[in-house]
Amino acid sequence: MKKAGILNRHLAGAIAELGHGDGVLVCDAGMPVPVGPRVVDLSFRAGVPSFAEVLDGLLAELVVEGATAATEVRRANAAVAALLDARFPELGLVSHERLKELSGGARLIVRTGEATPYANVLLRCGVFF
Questions:
Q1: Which residues lie across from 25 on neighbouring strands?
Q2: In whole angstroms, what is the distance from residue 32 CA to residue 48 CA?
């Protein structure tokens, strides 16, 4: 049994299968989940686990070379916008509709219990060397 890091077996296994350039969408409970990508649904109750908790857990285990979020997060969710700006100084922004389109090409979708608007980010995996 693992004693540290991501303990959820489905999420840990999905992370181990990721490669350079793969997309990982970390999303709130309300984001439409497209057919196609592997989904690990961590949502338990509204707000649990939070977007921030899941994002930080993933960032501790993944090499991320880029991130994209919805432009709408800036006006509708200042807390998540600040979190994303702190984690990704070169955060890419697209419309929420475009982010939903891009999510169909993700290799993995991690659904949180977050219940605030536009708490979504599409990560692009990098390499550690």
A1: 109, 122
A2: 18
Q: Which of 7, 9, 13, 20 is catalytic?
A: 20
pTM of the predicted model as reported, rounded to 2 decimal places: 0.96
Dihedral sign, CA of 89, 50, 21, 33? Answer: negative
Written as six digits, the tokens of 10 are 């489905």
The pair of three-digit structure tokens given for residue 94, joined into one six-digit string: 């697209």
pLDDT digits (tens, 9 = 90+) for 45-85: 999 999 999 999 999 999 999 999 999 999 999 999 999 99
Q: What is the pLDDT of residues 11-53, one digit of tens each?
A: 999 999 999 999 999 999 999 999 999 999 999 999 999 999 9
Our answer to whether residue 20 is catalytic in this structure is yes
Residue by residue, what is the 3-state secondary structure of 24-69?
Answer: EEEECCCCCCCCCCEEEECCCECCECCHHHHHHHHHCCCCEEEEEE
Which structure tokens are listed for 80? 């998540």
User: Residue 41 in contact with residue 109, Cβ under 8 Å?
Assistant: no
